[in-house]
């Protein structure tokens, strides 16, 4: 159970409170450090999956814990940026909070829906029908960049670019969810 990929997953979970503390730390550079911790956590996700396959150290526990850790850090980050851009809306354009809140709601709802679908498909022995797709991987990459940049808030170009990426990630989120649901619908009678 305790192998290098699983240790990296545990590290990602342990980085969540560090990330949250840095996000709220009242210093001018705390947003940079919070974004950096978020990026490091995202990179551990790539690394643990790669190492698990490369070293042939995949475990059922790791297969369970890895997506849980991913979803927790993304959902926590989305909640934090929704709060920030809602409180600081006057610093940006009107309704920036909606440009963050609506994608966050869609992304979180998709994560819950697809997780439930995967759990149900695993229960009926059809988990491979809802394996991660290339669209899901693109969605994740774009989403992580957008979130990191919205946390960093270095300048308006970064923020508005991140909003654009978040919009793209939201479209890919809906697209991948529809693909997963279509794959699942074929087995709903089971």
The CATH superfamily is identified as CDP-alcohol phosphotransferase transmembrane (TM) domain
Element string (H = helix, E = strand): HHHHHH
SSE-based structural type: mainly alpha
Give the count of helical stretches: 6
Strand content: under 5%
Low-confidence stretches: none
Write down the domain tally: 1
CATH fold label: Four Helix Bundle (Hemerythrin (Met), subunit A)
Largest sheet: none
Number of strands: 0
- Coarse morphology: globular
Assign the CATH architecture. Answer: Up-down Bundle
Into which percent range does the helicity of residues fall? over 70%
Highest-level CATH class = Mainly Alpha
Radius of gyration: 17 Å
Calculate the mean pLDDT score and round it: 91
Notes on the structure:
With 190 residues, the protein is an all-alpha fold. The protein has one domain: CDP-alcohol phosphotransferase transmembrane (TM) domain (Four Helix Bundle (Hemerythrin (Met), subunit A), Up-down Bundle), CATH 1.20.120. It is 79% helix and 0% strand. The protein has helices at 4-24, 30-54, 60-87, 96-123, 134-152, 156-185. The radius of gyration is 17 Å and the shape is globular. The two termini are 32 Å apart. The mean pLDDT is 91.
């Amino acid at each position: 159970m305790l192998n290098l990929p699983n240790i990296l997953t545990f590290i990602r979970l342990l980085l969540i409170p560090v990330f949250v503390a840095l996000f709220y730390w009242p210093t001018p550079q705390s947003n940079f450090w919070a974004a950096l911790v978020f990026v490091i956590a995202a990179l551990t996700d790539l690394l643990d999956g790669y190492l698990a396959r490369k070293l042939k150290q995949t475990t059922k526990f790791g297969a369970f814990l890895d997506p849980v850790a991913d979803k927790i850090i993304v959902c926590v980050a989305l909640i934090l940026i929704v709060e920030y851009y809602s409180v600081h809306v006057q610093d940006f354009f009107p309704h920036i909070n909606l440009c963050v809140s609506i994608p966050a709601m869609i992304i979180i709802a998709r994560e819950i829906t697809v997780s439930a679908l995967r759990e149900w498909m695993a229960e009926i022995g059809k988990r491979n029908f809802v394996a991660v797709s290339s669209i899901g991987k693109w969605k994740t990459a774009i989403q992580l960049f957008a979130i990191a940049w919205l946390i960093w808030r270095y300048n308006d170009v970064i923020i508005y670019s991140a909003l654009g990426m978040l919009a793209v990630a939201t479209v890919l989120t809906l697209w991948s969810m529809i693909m997963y649901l279509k794959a699942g619908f074929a087995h709903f009678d089971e």
